[in-house]
Give the backbone structure.
Amino acid sequence: MNLLKFFISILCFNSNVFAADPKPSAPPPSPVEVAQVKVDTVTEEVSTIGTLKPEESVVIKSEVAGRIQAIEFIEGQKVEAGAPLILLDASEYKALLEQNNATLVLNKQSYDRIKDLFNKQLTSRQTLDEAKSKLDESKAKLAVDKVRLDKMTIKAPFSGILGLREISQGAYIIPDQPLVRLDKLDTIKLDFKVPEIYLSKINRGQTVTVILDSFPAKEFTGKVYAMDLAVEEESRTLLLRAKLPNPNLELQGGLFARVKLVLSQREKALLIPEQAIVPQGGDSFVFKIQEDKAILTKIKLGQRRTGDVEVIEGLNANDFVITAGQMKLRPNATVTIVTPPQEKK
């Protein structure tokens, strides 16, 4: 009987010992910092370089030889289309014009008399034809004289601004000799190249922004209006051309330009801080806050900009993501926020 009591006491002691052992405690919540997914406009663009060119540009030259009688412009002057720029000595052509005009009058009178005789059957058809031929020849010579005389006045082919003249009054010039440059600058052309990988995203009407070393604090904008018909084989680039308004005539041809071409624009894009991204292999993840848990979430990234990155898939506008402390977390870990969530912009 005493032995039985002894064993019962031993069993009760052991059960009390096991019952006293505490259960393993859960790890404390990890402190983290968070940020709310924000909605903003994202612009996809490509940066390149380009060159400005006048909308129209020509070096004025003479079609005929002659001596300069007068220069009708001032260097740097704005002129209208058709304005006289240079007058050549036209005295010889004027005399020749008067001479051929007199011959035309004489041949016209002769033709009228012979025609009258022919109608009266007093002369032959051959004589009438010869008179008509001389009359036509006189008319042709007079027309040539008028064209030559007109070319003695060199005119502006379009409205624009004149550059520095390369001739002086009294100088004798020859055909194709450069005289002065004329540029149309109300609108400026911009030529630039983009890699062929962007070909499917390029369209007429896209916006370009331009920064020039001459105006470092100012940004100019324009629109793409034309593109080359083929990609350059050596550089694998496509030549594009845009137009920039130039109402103050401050832009000039030949300027070096830093160009940004806007390929697309998304107004309701989702953005998160770059530091929230957890790369794993070739994929990108974030820890999303769900109640007090850190949920590892796969995302698809879009455009990057300073400090932020666009999320195309995986998050919503009301989500919060962990931006600090996530490197020590395991999926579904309990967390505590040590900084207040950022307000949605």
